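Revision sheet: structure tokens.
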Amino acid sequence: MTASALRAILASDRVTHVPGVYDPVTAALAAAAGHRAVYLSGAAVSAIMLGPPDLGFVHGAQIADRASTLAPALDGIPLIADADTGYDDPVPAVWTALAYARAGISGLHLADQAGPGRGGRPAGTELADIGATAAKITALADQVPQIVVIARTCAHPVRGLDETIVRCRAYAEAGAAAILPEGVDTLEELTLVHAALPGVPLVINRSEAGGARPVLSDADLAGAGVRLVLHPVAALLAAMRAASLAYRAIADGGTAEPVDRMPWAAFTALAARDDSTADLDARYVPRGLQT
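Predicted:
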């Protein structure tokens, strides 16, 4: 059912912002804030499990395991996950998608990098063969229809817009439900991609890892065919900033009182997810997000 909800979002004429979540608490917060879809980033999973983000060896099984803890807090809200390069060929790509589906993931995005683009190597410097990537997309669309496939091309930074459009078209024809043209950030270029792929929903990535990008209105994005805007690590970075301030305050003054924090009653109400069992002091917390 969540995959159907995600397909409906992609078929709409509006932009949906998709924040990153990384544990049941952040999933519940995103749901309480009214988000229609959420995202699990491989970088976030790597940072939480291993320390450094984007090490390039977080396996799909680990992402699926993390995702399985999020689904109960989402109440049917679609969860999109990072599948990175989708692994080497159609067989492991299908295995990954099946594991994701069992974990409650509704959609994944699969990239066309020949390597993970990590460990200091810029994303997209080594591109996989178009046909090999298209074969993985077709296998996923045919064998795991319960997963919505978003094809991500990293061609733009190294081969430009023309190659990006060629790859976007090939991946859409292979069965991708939407296309994420990484690095295509201006309204002019998004409009050109949209014109080359009529009827194909576009997804853009607004990760802080990508540096400063043009700020475009939802109306402009919708007109250029964009249906999803991913914000993979915004909440994680905000949480890390808040934690760093609390730790510094305790180290300097012996108390976290100077730091703005969610009230304990709000936290317990969020965890309870049931007004009948929530602490009476938490009843003031509305269904919408309150911090």
